[in-house]
Amino acid sequence: MFSHTSTTYLVTCPYTWIKSDLNMGFSLLPGPGNETLVNVTFKSEPNGISKELNDVSAGTTTMMTFTREDLGTVQSNYWMWMSLMGKSGDQEIFSTSVEYYRNRDLDLIVLFDNYYYHWPGKTVQFSVFGVYRNNLPYLGPFNISLTNPNGVLMETWQNVQKESGVASLHYPLSAQATLGSWYIHVEAGSDIYGYNFYVQNYDHVFIDVAYLFYFDGIEDVSGFISAWYQGKAVEGTARVTIHPDSNPTDIITQHINVS
């Protein structure tokens, strides 16, 4: 948002950054107004980060650096909003916001054999591994914890380390397993990753049809629907609704027998 157009500006900065200093270049370009010296403030309100550049001359480029110490806990977040405001005297001449995405040094990945699990007697099988930005595997230890939907810690695996870098683990669900979203928490050094899986006594209806498709008025839209309860196929009636992406109110509904 601009207050007026008497001065223009240019900000160059990385859209992504790793766990390091965040460097931004700021250029104040002469406009039709008479401003020659401008005070510029970089601020991220939720994170309490603020820096000022005073008496920035039009036509020059200045580097602004936020060190790792400046960023603090921001480095554990993925997104950061930074507001920029320029003033000449008491007059605000521009303001805007930019966002940054911190890219991980290490991507932690959790793979499960299923997304939904049914109790009793089911065992959750999963593997944990890490990949660096240069595609090399993480070979250090993992600390892993499992909590149920009520936030109760159910299991921990400490200092799990494999020569291959892939830790394969399992957790048997009891007959009294709490239904809902379970949470796996993985730590590898300073990197953290979380993943959810679901425990329930029924399966969601499975629909195999394109979520988005292009319709030319000639070809039919086809797919199939199936449903299970406690691991067994069930029959019933499914209500299927489709609509154009450009017009959500133009709805087509059909009732289909599932058998």
Detailed description of the structure:
GO terms for molecular function: endopeptidase inhibitor activity. It holds the Pfam family MG2. Keywords: Signal, Thioester bond. The protein is an all-beta fold. The protein folds into 3 domains: 8-102, Sandwich (Immunoglobulin-like); 115-199, Macroglobulin (MG2) domain (Immunoglobulin-like, Sandwich), CATH 2.60.40.1930; 206-258, no CATH class. 2% of the residues lie in helices and 55% in strands. It is built from 1 helix and 22 strands. The protein has one helix spanning 68-71; strands spanning 8-12, 16-17, 22-29, 37-44, 49-57, 60-66, 79-88, 91-102, 106-112, 116-117, 123-132, 142-147, 153-160, 167-172, 180-188, 191-199, 206-208, 224-226, 228-229, 232-233, 236-242, 252-258. It has a 5-stranded mixed beta sheet, with no helix packed on it. Strand 12 (142-147) and strand 13 form a beta hairpin. The chain is flat and about 75 Å long. The termini are far apart.
Tags for this model:
flat, 2% helix, 5-stranded mixed sheet, A2M/Complement_sys, mainly beta, 3 domains, Immunoglobulin-like, single chain, 259 residues
Name given to the CATH homologous superfamily of the largest domain: Uncharacterised protein PF12988, DUF3872
State the CATH class of the largest domain. Answer: Mainly Beta
Beta-strand proportion: over 45%
Kindly state the mean pLDDT as a whole number?
Answer: 74
Helix content, binned percent: under 10%
Q: What's the arrangement of strands in the largest beta sheet?
A: 2-8-7-4-5
Radius of gyration: 27 Å
The unreliable regions are: 1-7
Largest sheet: 5 strands, mixed
> How many beta-strand segments?
22
InterPro entries: A2M/Complement_sys, MG2
Domain Macroglobulin: 120-199
GO molecular function, one term: endopeptidase inhibitor activity
Keywords: Signal, Thioester bond
